[in-house]
């Protein structure tokens, strides 16, 4: 709409909206090559604002806590966590699946949106790709920490062992190794979900997991993107580059994937009863009304009820509200993995072996420590690298019709 | 070892000779393979050189090792030897076979030729080997906290004896535990002869004084009807192992044809192993057992002529809640005259025993199913415990020698033993552990463990065994024989000399040595007479021995007054096993609690008093109050509160100190086993209990347990299998016959119908397979390591449930869910169908455990084998890997025993025969409920059992095709109930 040579930074004209209330512009009016250059490139070249310093400090503290937790873990063993028999998988796996899910949004944005010629990836794709890398770093550390004997982790790789021993290719964990190693493929979450589907544990053994895990991954990935983009956009005054249209579209994707996830929950419950299988039925009743029932209902509120507010265009455009909803979804997705991993294991086939699971302080330190690792990397990224692709943004400046909904 | 040679059992399985093998060495090891070229030779030598260099990289241990200078006869390094020996529990002998590696005993088994064992052992015998190596055992002679030598003690003792001698020992008292050793009793008789004015006394907190002359030997194999009026004859009885075997043999069912099953009625106030196996069990307060017995007696036809005192509740007219039960019992008893057994336990008063004896006589059981126990003669000059304590309090005792036991801890509270003890001028305590009594004694002399010392012992049925040691004494201790020898003032001799001489003197036969050796090898004396002594004494009056008040308070049946029961703990007994980690961590049979005792209350009482598990209550009884946490026990009599004894030890080792509460603090002589007049008051505090099983309900038709009645079985033998839903073998994408298991095909059957739930398999497995003790905190996090657990499920009403015990080892599934999920292939199948766990390969993803529907896998969450003292390491079985942190483990079907049998069979050029391999759980099982073998051998026992209509798969619907299968549980119901 506005010509490229018009002057820029001051102009905060109200953005235009489609009849349905969608923001139509990917770029605020008045952007030129120079303004784009300056806005983006100035950030790493100037002094860091106080908010960055404070945020980095907190993140770094969390990271240090992570290191303490890991050091103690390596010294003592996974027994410092709350894992037990029957709940042999605990926070480490919950965190792993959660981080992998978050990593997924970057893959989705950089790959799928590109393939679909969606230009609203321009201002956020570098963010989300960076986020993906960092989330993969967090996710990748988890299975390693999870191992009873982490120093022999490489036995999961198919390397030419002198004794001719290979990994067991029937195990979903080996598929995970390949999938994490090639995380760019969309199927990563499908593969991770097979860790559960392939097992015979009621609550895990379900064919719906692959699609529903992918939907959940995109769901949490966009939520995490929003949780990062919204404050960054505010602090570095990037509203004219990351316009409401981006936020609105991301919120729409969340709403859509959130509905798929909700459908997944419904089908899981339906199939448990439809199957007539005593173990499945009991699993579902236990999940909703057993000792961990409150976790399940928290999940329902966080992941199903709260996101319904996104039907409202006002919420989608309200950055504070959107930020909060995204927080709920992130927490909700973590809880979802907890429900799947832990609640299913606490009560499976043999009642005599049923036991509760309670995380220790080391579990929590590992969870929040991994958030520290993620945020530290994210802060460094913001500080050191132009966080938006300058050339791609300038492409929008040069070809304004790409930046507007017709 | 000089003259005192131990004699290994003459078992064809023990030392393996290579006589049958033509090749001494493996092929290629002793000569060049043919056709070795120069090139090949050079290649090998260079490789050898290179490898020799590599060897320098490994850090060798610095300890000096010393080879045998003279190879001892029969000892082959790495080959275990088994010796027959014996020990005693509550004064009754038990024959054992102990496995040792190069003089290091590691595993205790029962002696199949011993009538009180028949090859099985109790949980305590399994745990005894851990006590041997317990670093908390008393290690030196001490006096007043200072370390002294044994010679110092002998000198001090001689001095003291000099001063008691003038008065013929009038101030000398000897206090022993229950003893039955012929040699020890003869020595005691000698001491009494030398000091005619001296007295001796037996104190056993779990004594059987109530039985007096009513001790019977029952033959449950001949009984068609068994009635137990508060008797735990299957578990806590000196003849329990034998009884359990006989009892189960009368109930074992394999085929429908000719199936027969005895019927078992039980009445008891608190669930015991015995009661839990009853076809009809009623929960009756201990005080109501007498009226119950009277009611049975009257109906069984005992009239006043037989000496039955009329009782208000026994006239048969008053209706009480157990009317139906009594009627059914009496009908069955009458229908089976001469083929029934009524038994009551040591916790019931003399009158119940007298009554039960009369009923048995009336029913014609005498001489058929029951016979009198041969009496044990005791030396003269024995006094009752009450008398001894009175004398001590009066200052009449100057020298008190306490042989074993812990009276300062376990004497009845109203005796005030502690104060009386302080009045004795010189107190000597001789015991394996330094305990409460030792702390308050002037001298403490470490006793030798029974695996370190020679002795002899007498079983419940009178059969005598000689106990031979397996190991040199580990510490500066001495045996009771040597202490008594010192009292008679003879020149010191070793236990071996004492025991051997006594036997030799008693049996002046020319071939004594041969017979002695035979007795040692067999573990039971058949051809020799046990040492005897002339001066037999009358047993002291019962009233003096602390158990029975002259007049017992009678209450109406079903009185609402609370009743307190004192019961030996199922793990630590009277407290003597408090420092044994295996026993502390062995789940208590019903509550599955570990590392604790709890005041057991009924669900009804809990409701009335608004109590929950773990609530601490003030228990006031006879003006004494203690605090105890409660545990709600289904099947407990409504108004009975059970206090397990043996906890709250103040001077035990690191394991047993301050575990649980001390119920002895409430126990008085007039309420030795039970008494009325108890109040409980919730005090608001809480205790956190730790148990291994929290859900005792099978939650619907899950295919875990199948049970039914005997009638149901007779009309439809396949009733259990019909409840099963096995997927067809070809419902798979793979070739279902890809692995045909052509060689051996190992399998196991667990017969739930005869399993009594004693947990011996759990602890035997722990001993055999180096399973660590993890402690209360780790069990609280559900990390117990037992490879075979015993699940107990309740069915029916909470106040009157039925119990089913189910031992659960690894199922060794043919379609094992654990195997396909392991990313590194650390759990794999072998060609004999074993589900193997390769510790070295395991990286610890724990996926296998998640996918195991039986949850039998155990994980080393932490390094559980760190910090073992050098002695504790000695108990480890050298044939089994000690697992490190981070690896998964589970039942292997005792693969080390399979391989030992394989080696033997290969050397003897034959196949492994049925019965050559006995896993530890099967070996210990008193009822032979666990059978292992080759399913491909159609004549094997296991194959026979697998063909039984009772055989079923646990969770068979999952198509795991388990190799461990179960027999459905049958109950032989009376048609009247």
Report what the structure shows.
The complex is a heterodimer of chains A (406) and B (977). Chain A is mainly α and 406 residues long. Chain A has one domain. Chain A contains 14 helices and no strands. The N and C termini of chain A lie close together (11 Å). Chain B starts with 37 loop residues before the first helix and ends in a 6-residue tail after the last strand. Chains A and B meet through helix 5 and helix 9 of A and strand 29, helix 23, helix 24 and strand 33 of B.
- Overall shape of chain B: it is globular
Strand content of chain B: 15-25%
Distance between the termini of chain A: 11 Å
Tell me the total number of β-strands of chain B. 38
Briefly characterize the structure.
The complex is a heterodimer of chains A (406) and B (977). Chain A has 406 residues and is mainly alpha-helical.
Task: Please describe the topology of this protein.
The complex is a heterodimer of chains A (406) and B (977).
Chain A: H1 33-45, H2 50-76, H3 91-115, H4 125-146, H5 172-181, H6 188-197, H7 209-235, H8 244-274, H9 278-289, H10 293-305, H11 313-317, H12 319-346, H13 361-384, H14 390-398
Helix pairs in contact in A: 1-14, 2-13, 3-4, 3-6, 3-7, 3-12, 4-13, 5-6, 6-7, 7-8, 7-12, 8-9, 9-10, 10-12
Chain B: H1 38-55, E1 81-89, E2 92-101, E3 104-110, H2 123-132, E4 141-143, E5 146-148, H3 150-164, E6 172-176, H4 182-194, E7 199-202, E8 216-218, E9 225-229, H5 240-249, E10 263-268, H6 273-276, E11 280-283, H7 289-299, H8 323-335, E12 340-344, H9 350-362, E13 370-372, E14 382-383, H10 385-393, E15 399-403, H11 407-410, H12 417-422, E16 426-431, H13 436-439, E17 443-446, E18 455-458, E19 464-467, H14 480-487, H15 495-506, H16 512-522, E20 563-567, H17 581-584, E21 599-601, H18 603-609, E22 615-621, E23 624-632, E24 640-644, E25 674-676, E26 678-686, E27 707-709, H19 710-715, H20 719-722, E28 746-751, H21 760-768, H22 776-780, E29 789-795, E30 802-808, H23 817-821, E31 827-829, E32 835-837, H24 847-851, E33 858-859, H25 870-874, E34 888-889, H26 895-907, H27 920-924, E35 930-934, H28 941-946, E36 951-952, E37 964-967, E38 969-971
């Amino acid at each position: 709409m506005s010509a490229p040579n018009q002057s820029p930074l001051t102009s905060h004209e109200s953005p235009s909206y489609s009849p349905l209330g969608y923001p139509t512009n990917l770029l605020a009016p008045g952007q030129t090559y120079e303004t784009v250059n300056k806005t983006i490139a100035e950030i790493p070249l100037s002094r860091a604002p106080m908010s960055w310093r404070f945020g980095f400090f907190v993140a770094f503290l969390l990271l240090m806590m992570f290191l303490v937790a890991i050091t103690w873990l390596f010294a003592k063993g996974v027994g410092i966590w709350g894992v037990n028999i029957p709940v042999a998988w605990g926070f480490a796996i919950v965190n792993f699946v959660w981080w992998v899910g978050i990593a997924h949004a970057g893959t989705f944005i950089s790959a799928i949106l590109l393939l679909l010629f969606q230009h609203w990836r321009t201002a956020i794709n570098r963010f989300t790709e960076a986020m993906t890398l960092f989330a993969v770093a967090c996710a990748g550390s988890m299975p390693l920490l999870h191992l009873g004997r982490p120093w022999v982790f490489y036995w999961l790789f198919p390397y030419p062992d002198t004794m001719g021993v290979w990994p067991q290719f029937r195990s979903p964990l080996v598929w995970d190794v390949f999938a994490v190693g090639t995380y760019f493929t969309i199927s990563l979450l499908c593969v991770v979900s097979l860790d559960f589907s392939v097992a015979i544990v009621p609550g895990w053994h379900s064919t719906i997991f692959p699609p529903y895990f992918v939907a959940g991954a995109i769901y949490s990935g966009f939520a995490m993107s929003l949780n990062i983009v919204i404050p960054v956009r505010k602090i570095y005054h990037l509203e004219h580059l990351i316009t409401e249209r981006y936020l609105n579209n991301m919120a729409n994707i969340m709403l859509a994937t959130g509905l798929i996830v909700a459908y997944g929950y419904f089908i899981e419950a339906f199939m448990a009863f439809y199957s007539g299988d005593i173990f499945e039925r009991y699993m579902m009743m236990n999940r909703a009304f057993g000792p961990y029932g409150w976790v399940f209902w928290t999940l329902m509120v966080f992941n199903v009820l709260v996101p319904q507010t996104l039907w409202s265009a006002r919420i989608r455009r309200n950055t504070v509200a959107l930020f909060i909803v995204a927080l709920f979804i992130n927490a909700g997705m973590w809880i979802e993995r907890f429900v799947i991993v832990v609640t299913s294991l606490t009560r499976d086939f043999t009642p005599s072996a049923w036991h509760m699971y309670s995380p220790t302080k080391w579990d929590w330190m590992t969870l929040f420590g991994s958030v520290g690792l993620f945020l530290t990397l994210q802060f460094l990224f913001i500080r050191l690298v132009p966080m938006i692709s300058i050339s791609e943004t300038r492409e929008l400046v040069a070809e304004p019709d790409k930046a507007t909904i017709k | 070892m000089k003259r005192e040679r131990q004699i290994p059992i003459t078992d064809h399985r023990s030392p393996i000779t290579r006589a049958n093998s033509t090749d001494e060495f493996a092929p290629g090891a002793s000569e060049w393979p043919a056709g070795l070229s120069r090139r090949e030779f050079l290649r090998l030598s260079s490789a050898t050189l290179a490898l020799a260099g590599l060897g320098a990289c490994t850090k060798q241990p610095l300890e000096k090792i010393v080879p045998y200078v003279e190879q001892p006869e029969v000892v082959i390094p790495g080959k275990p030897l088994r010796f027959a020996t014996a020990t005693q529990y509550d004064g009754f002998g038990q024959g054992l076979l102990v496995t040792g590696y190069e003089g290091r005993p590691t595993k205790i088994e029962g002696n199949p030729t011993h009538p009180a064992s028949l090859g099985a052992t109790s949980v305590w015998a399994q745990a005894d080997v851990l006590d041997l190596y317990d670093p908390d055992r008393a290690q030196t002679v001490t006096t007043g906290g200072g370390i002294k030598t044994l010679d110092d003690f002998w000198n001090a003792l001689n001095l003291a004896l000099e001063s008691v001698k003038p008065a013929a020992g009038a101030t000398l008292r000897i206090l022993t535990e229950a003893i039955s050793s012929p040699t020890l009793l003869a020595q005691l008789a000698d001491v009494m002869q030398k000091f005619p004015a001296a007295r001796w006394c037996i104190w056993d907190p779990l004594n059987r004084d109530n039985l007096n002359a009513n001790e019977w030997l029952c033959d449950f194999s001949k009984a068609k009807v068994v009635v137990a009026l508060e008797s735990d004859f299957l578990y806590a009885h000196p003849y329990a192992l034998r009884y359990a075997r006989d009892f189960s043999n009368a109930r074992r069912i394999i085929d429908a044809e000719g199936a027969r099953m005895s019927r078992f009625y039980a009445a008891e106030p608190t669930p015991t192993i015995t009661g839990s196996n009853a076809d009809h069990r009623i929960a009756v307060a201990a005080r109501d057992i007498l009226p119950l017995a009277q009611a049975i007696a009257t109906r069984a036809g005992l009239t006043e002529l037989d000496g039955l005192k009329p009782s208000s509740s026994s006239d048969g007219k008053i209706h009480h809640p157990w009317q139906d039960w009594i009627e059914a019992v009496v009908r069955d008893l009458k229908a089976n005259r001469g083929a029934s057994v009524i038994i009551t336990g040591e916790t019931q008063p003399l009158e119940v025993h007298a009554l039960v004896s009369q009923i048995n006589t009336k029913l014609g059981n005498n001489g058929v199913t029951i016979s009198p126990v041969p009496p044990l003669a005791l030396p003269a000059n024995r006094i009752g415990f009450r008398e001894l304590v009175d004398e001590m309090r009066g200052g009449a005792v100057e020298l008190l020698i306490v042989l074993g036991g812990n009276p300062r801890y376990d004497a009845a509270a109203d005796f005030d033993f502690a104060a009386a003890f302080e009045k004795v001028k010189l107190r000597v305590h001789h015991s394996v552990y330094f305990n409460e009594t030792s702390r308050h004694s002037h001298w403490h002399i470490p006793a030798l463990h029974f695996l370190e010392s020679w002795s002899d012992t007498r079983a419940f049925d009178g059969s005598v065994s000689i106990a031979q040691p397996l190991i040199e004494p580990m510490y500066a201790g001495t045996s009771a024989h040597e202490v008594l020898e010192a009292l008679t003032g003879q020149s010191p001799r070793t236990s071996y000399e004492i025991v051997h001489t006594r036997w030799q003197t008693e049996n002046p036969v020319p071939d004594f040595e041969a017979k002695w050796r035979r007795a040692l090898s067999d573990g039971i004396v058949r051809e020799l007479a046990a040492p005897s002594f002339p001066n037999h004494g009358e047993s002291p009056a019962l009233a003096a021995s602390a158990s029975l008040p002259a007049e017992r308070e009678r209450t109406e049946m079903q009185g609402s007054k609370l009743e307190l029961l004192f019961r030996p703990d199922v793990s630590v007994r009277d407290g003597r096993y408090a420092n044994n980690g295996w026993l502390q961590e062995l789940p208590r049979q019903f509550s599955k609690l570990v590392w604790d005792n709890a005041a057991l209350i009924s669900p009804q009482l809990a409701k009335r008093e608004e109590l929950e598990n773990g609530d601490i209550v003030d228990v006031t009884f006879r003006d004494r109050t203690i605090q105890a946490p409660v545990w709600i026990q289904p099947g407990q009599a409504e108004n009975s509160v059970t206090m397990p004894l043996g906890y709250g030890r103040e001077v035990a080792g690191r394991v047993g100190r301050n575990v649980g509460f001390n119920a002895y603090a409430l126990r008085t002589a007039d309420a030795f086993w039970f008494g009325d007049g108890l109040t409980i008051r919730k005090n608001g505090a809480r205790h956190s209990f730790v148990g291994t099983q929290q859900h005792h309900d099978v939650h619907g038709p899950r295919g875990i347990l199948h049970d039914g009645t005997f009638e149901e079985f007779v009309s439809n033998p396949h009733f259990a299998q019909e409840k099963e839903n096995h997927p067809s073998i070809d419902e798979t994408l793979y070739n279902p016959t890809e692995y045909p298991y052509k060689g051996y095909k190992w399998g196991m059957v667990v017969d739930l119908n005869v399993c009594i739930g004693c947990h011996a398999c759990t602890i035997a497995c722990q001993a055999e397979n180096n399973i660590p003790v993890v402690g209360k905190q780790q069990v609280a996090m559900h990390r117990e390591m037992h490879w075979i657990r015993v699940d107990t499920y309740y069915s029916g009403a909470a106040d009157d449930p039925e119990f089913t015990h189910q031992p659960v080892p690894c199922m060794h599934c043919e379609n094992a869910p654990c195997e396909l999920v392991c990313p590194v292939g650390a759990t794999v199948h072998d060609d004999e169908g074993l589900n193997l766990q390769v510790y070295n390969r395991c990286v610890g993803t724990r996926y296998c455990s998640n996918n195991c529907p039986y949850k039998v896998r155990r994980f080393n969450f932490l390094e559980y084998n760190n910090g073992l003292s050098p002695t504790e390491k000695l108990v480890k079985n050298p044939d089994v890997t000690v697992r490190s942190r981070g690896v998964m483990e589970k039942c292997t079907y005792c693969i080390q025993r399979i391989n030992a049998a394989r080696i033997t069979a290969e050397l003897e050029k034959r196949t492994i025969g049925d019965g050559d391999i006995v896993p530890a759980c099967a070996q210990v099982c008193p009822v032979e409920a666990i059978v292992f073998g080759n399913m491909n051998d159609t004549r094997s026992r296991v194959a026979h059992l697998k063909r039984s209509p009772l055989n079923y798969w646990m969770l068979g619907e999952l198509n795991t095709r388990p190799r461990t299968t179960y027999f459905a549980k049958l109950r032989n119901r009376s048609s009247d109930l």
